[in-house]
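Re-run requested by the PI after the first attempt was lost when the workstation crashed. Everything re-entered from the original request form. Ligand of interest: calcium ion.
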Amino acid sequence: MGIPIIIDCDPGVDDALAIILALSHPKVDLKAVCTVTGNGSLENTTKNGLKILSLCGREDIPLYKGSARGLDDKEPDTVPAFGDDGLGGYAHTVQTEKKPEKEGAVEFLVRAANESNGEVTLFATGPCTNVAKAIRIDKELPKKFKRLIVMGGAKYTGNMSPVAEYNFWADPLAAKEVLNAGFHEIVMIGLDVTNKIALGADIREILRIFDTDISRFIYHATREGLIENWETRQKPVAPMHDVLTVAYLIDESILTLKRANIDVVTEGIAKGQSVVDIKGHWSGGKCNALYAADVDVNQFYKLFLTTIFKEHEDEITKYLM
Ligand code: RIB
Ligand code: CA
């Protein structure tokens, strides 16, 4: 039996890749997917989540539709990084009859925490709204999960402002409440490391050679993100942020972590900024999270590719030596 996990996400190409990687590795047991507004409206991220489960042949995994509004009851701005459909213009190629569960994501998270026996790892790869709302219902919820692995924030950079990353920026109050809610362990995997694993032209070409349903999906779905990066930053690489969370679960040695106290700015010019205090400047040595300071990019790609395309393990290993 693999490690039981729940992914709360806003699919999104990189959320989709996190789900695909989770479903491809025997060490991981994906119990459920929850959705939130982010890479498009809630309707869209939910549709995409259902499609990804079908693409992977795992319609048996329940999907719970979550929050369209943030903790402040306003609709958060969505992000168009992966095109209008959130899957790089490729969503229409995947059809599914699968429907979300009747229970909502917030209610599900409260129930799942109670049924977790302290064993389930929770992932948040979209705005933290569902998780924060669940914690407002049950303050003990964080203690009932094994740990939280979150894609969000950054110490040194931003993608919505010079200092703010999208997931924390979209619902900063939710991110703040979740980080300070008392989980046994939080791993914050932010842009400082996820930018380093952006998908380049060489690996995209290799995906074309593999020519499977999944490799074609990754190749085509990542194209919009690559174009956006080229036009805005002159970098011909596609975002892969969220997939690093699941890669870390599979092989923790991929990341260098530092104990830190992390808080989030909720308004003003620095809205959404994660303030990462490693040296105890203002937290007096108190730590609420592990901050991902560095990533072994080669090791990540070896894991990602050999897990999803096992049949090509030899070539991949030689290429990435
Ligand atoms: O800033 C990166 C995050 O924003 C990722 O989770 C991506 O999916 C987008 O929503
Ligand atoms: Ca995401």
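Saved to the shared folder this time. The chain is about 40% helix and 15% strand.
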